[in-house]
Amino acid sequence: MKQQIIRQIQNHIFNHPENVHPLTKKKFYEIPDVFIADASDKIFEKFRKVVSPEHMTPEEAFELAYGKNSFKGGSVIVSVSPIHETVRISNRKCKDMASKEWALGRGHGDEVFHKNRFKEIVTQIHEMGYRAVAPWLSEGFRVFRTDTFSSNWSERHIAYAAGAGTFGLNDSFITEKGACVRIISIVTDILMEPDTRTDKNHTANCLFKSKGLCGACIKRCPVKAIDDSGHDKMKCALFVYGEGSKKFAAEVGGIEKTGSGCGLCQTGVPCEYRNPTQQTGS
Ligand code: B12
Ligand code: SF4
Ligand code: SF4
User: Fold this and answer.
1) How would you label 241-279 residue by residue, b for 16+ Cβ within 10 Å and e otherwise?
2) How confident is the model at residue 231 (pLDDT cuts 50, 70, 90)?
3) Does the CB atom of residue 75 touch ligand 3 within 6 A?
4) Which of 58, 141, 147, 188 could staple 39 via S-S, CB 3.0–4.6 A?
5) Does residue 236 line the site of ligand 3, with CB under 6 A?
């Protein structure tokens, strides 16, 4: 069953006829890597401390969709879609804001194509006779913008639980295919063999955090939202969600509401497309 689910997700994303970037005419996303966590793993309770007290466990997310006492065990499927190199490379050259290709990928790729495909994957799991919910795409999902940014379902933390990677100095989630990835998870009652977490700690894949080297993302940020002590989410958010970003997205044919994104700290850096502590990848 695990291999069937993995192949189904990979095929649905990669080979979908709409997996085509409007400007580059290449793919939005490469073949996703799919990881599995045990939905009852105790690490999910820890996320109430490191993410927010409202952060849901997989059981809570499942029961929000299917009702109290409906959860009898299951798995969390985590899909990590690498962004096509044409988009990554275009963003490397930028210094002040995202490239046109990145801006279109943010709107038509992340918000439209990626989210729609995962709604369809949830439906496919239902058709196989199982229950499934993608918490980020559900009505219960919340982003908190109080003194700092947080949410009640952080895809990066869920991906960490499934052994997909670790965090960087700039908060980016760094996988074996780097930080230029998009993550979505699904809680299901299908029981599958979980993947194991092998990293020493939650920042092992970052050169700065693990070896005191690099810091390239600090120089890449156009609004100085990153320094030796980490990432200022408010400064970042004002830029990423700001009027300039929305205007630029609209000008280049992207989606005004979602803005252009930025991702300069994820491109032109050693963790862009590989785990920089392993020196592999292409
Ligand atoms: C709110 C939000 C934002 C906010 C806040 C980001 C943030 N750091 O939280 C703002 C507007 C700043 C933002 C910006 C961007 N975002 Co955003 N955003 C989100 C969203 C909706 C929720 C994030 C969330 O819940 N954060 C929770 C907080 C607590 O996380 P955190 O502060 O990073 O966590 C730290 C602590 O927990 C700490 N920690 C301390 N102790 C411990 C112990 C353990 C065991 C662990 C695991 C961790 C831990 O480690 C973390 C890193 O320091 C997610 C989608 C989702 N549902 O997850 C996308 C998401 C995080 N964004 C994404 C992207 C791509 C972007 C942008 C590049 C914009 C763009 N698209 O062009 C920038 C990049 C900014 C950056 N350098 O990370 C991707 C991330 C991909 C990746 N490889 O990291 C996501 C996952 C969307 C997706 N589905 O793929 N985003
Ligand atoms: S650019 Fe360097 S310091 Fe910044 S997150 Fe990547 S590996 Fe860490
Ligand atoms: S996404 Fe852009 S604004 Fe936010 S930290 Fe990275 S480089 Fe800075």
Assistant:
1) beeebbebbbebebbeebbbbbbbbbbbbbbbbbbbbee
2) very high
3) no
4) 58
5) yes
